[in-house]
Every structure is written in C-alpha cells, then in structure tokens.
UniProtKB/TrEMBL annotation:
Subcellular location: Cell membrane
GO biological process entries: cell surface receptor protein tyrosine kinase signaling pathway; nervous system development
Keyword Cell inner membrane: no
Protein name: GDNF/GAS1 domain-containing protein
Organism (species): Bactrocera latifrons (Malaysian fruit fly)
InterPro entries documented for this protein: GDNF/GAS1, GDNF_alpha, GDNF_rcpt
Domain of life: Eukaryota
GDNF/GAS1 domain segment(s): 44-121
Family: Belongs to the GDNFR family.
Keyword Manganese: no
One Gene Ontology term, aspect cellular component: external side of plasma membrane
Location, primary (coarse class): membrane
Length: 134
C-alpha cells in the first residue's frame, strides 16, 4: 500500500495522491462494516445497481452529478468546494473504481464510468489543486 508517509515532504505526498489517487486514506477499520460490500471491482452497471438500492449511496451519486454538472462535455459547476466535497464522498461508494469489460452492456457502462471518472469539473479541480501545491 502506497499510503502517505508522515515524515515525507507534504508536496511529495500530494503528488503521490494526484498520481495514484490511492484509496488508502479511506480504508475502513476491521471493526467498521463496509456499507457497500462488493468482493471484486464491480462493473459500473452493477455498481450503479447496488448504489440505487441504498438511499445514502444514491444521494452521494446524485449530489455529485448536481454539484459537478456537465453539459456538452463542459464543466458547469457553480461551487468548486461543493463539487470537490461531493467527489470526495463519492469515492467511498461502489461507483468509484468500477470497471467496464467488453460485453453487450459496454456502452451504458462507459457512460456511467465517464460520469464519475472523466468529469471535466473534477479534472479542473485537480488541476487547480496541483497548481496551488507546486
């Protein structure tokens, strides 16, 4: 696990987070129960299905889409902090880290994947954060 090293330079840790986007900071303690237990990386279709069955997860996804609005593949967010917070919260759901294998559901899966992983608002936020820490 490539988690942050407390003795390392903060810029190095930020750069590592930016490159790897590693979820180590979100690992649950064994005493805590994972609210969305999925044994392997889910397809994005399955992740959305699981998320829709859990009101809290669905709210995370809906908040993300509302705060990190995209129209015509352009970011239309109104509040940078709200978008960043909703993206950070979404990372705790099955929606983050889902995959799209080549099968008959790939087109729908890719659409779901792109909402989460290729959101131009998140790219903009990460670019701004990176410039602030260089």
């Amino acid at each position: 696990c490539l988690c942050k090293e407390p003795g390392m330079d903060p810029d190095c840790n930020h750069f590592r987070d930016f490159l790897f986007d590693h979820p180590c900071g979100f690992v649950l303690k064994k005493a805590e129960k994972d609210p969305y237990p999925i044994d392997a990386l889910p397809t994005c279709n399955h992740a959305l299905s699981v998320c829709q069955q859990e009101r809290k997860c669905l709210k995370l996804f809906e908040d993300f889409k509302a705060h990190c609005k995209v129209r015509d593949n352009k970011c239309k967010m109104e509040n940078r902090d709200a978008c960043h917070d909703s993206w950070t919260n979404l990372r705790l759901s099955p929606m983050f880290g889902c995959i799209c294998p080549n099968n008959h559901m790939k087109k729908r899966c890719d659409r779901i994947f792109n909402i989460v992983n290729h959101n131009p608002c998140v790219v903009r936020i990460m670019g701004m954060d990176d410039k602030l820490h260089l």
